[in-house]
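Input/output pair, single chain:
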Amino acid sequence: MTDIVAERMARLRATMKETGTGLVAVGPGSHMQWLVGFYPHPDERPCLLLVGPEKAAFLMPALNAEAAKQSSSLPMFEWADADGPDAALARALDEAFPERAGRVVLDETMRADFAFLLADALPGNARAFTGDTLGLLRSIKDEDEYRRLKISSRLNDAAMQAAWAAIRPGMTENQLADVVRDHFSSNGARPLFWIVGANENGAHPHHSTSDRVLKKGDAVVIDIGGRLDGYPSDMTRMAIIGEAPEGYAEVHAVVEKAVQAALAAAKPGVKAKEVDKAARDVIAAAGYGEYFVHRTGHGLGIDGHEPPYITATSEVLLEEGMVFSIEPGIYLPGRFGIRLEEIVILRADGPEIFSELPRDAFIAKA
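Output:
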């Protein structure tokens, strides 16, 4: 067991004790990746990591066991297709959860049939999801995660600059997206998403990048991210081809003011909804409230979207070390959209921004 795995297991068990949790069960996915550094091939065969107060064990399909043993020394209770998982699950629970006491925390992202299999084996235990245990721990990044996220962000900055250098009238949204994808791939990252939306297309927050030809006078939303060394990036900037459409400068200024208000509101101990409110109030006061149609932000870690979520209803108290986006936007149907997005890590005195690029619109030659 590596030092990072041992430290995270210890933190999880301390949180389990505080919350009266007797067992945390996770399936193959990001929770398992964060906790033990890997996860086996996910398919329909039940596979669970069971973490109890003192011991942990895997329920492991036999065909995945040998490969999994190269990544973990935890005991693996194997089962074959011919036998089914029930007996192996009972043995794994005897190892990790012998007293069967306390609530059972389920990975909210695991397959439903895995969850029902475990629930049937533990019918008398209260159940919850990971919000106050593993999920909470994941939302607070350690220095290794901060370093990886920062490096990933720097590559995202470079990919955005590559897009700025390439953008010109006559190319399509897809061709500009190709530049971004190629930059990520040629620098060892996996492209994750590439939203390029010109003028009327930018008024759709999750526009599907198309063959729409870019032209003089377009305001272009560029929202991109890639995965480097296991961690993603995410950022949105604006580009103008030649001269901005009518009314653009005013709306950009409002969105920029909303970003600044959200950054100022984000402090340890503040509820997430207060950060959302800070951004939303600026946009509403300027008369564009109905055109800010999404939350202000989402967490970023192993997953591109994870807690904390910066919404109008979130009661989550922000804590030092949390990483999340601040990305207000205004979307004017048929005209253009503007979104400015920063990823930040919350420090004791407020947010530290990962990107080193300005939020001013990039002006491309027409």
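The longest helix spans residues 143-166. The two ends are 57 Å apart (CA to CA).
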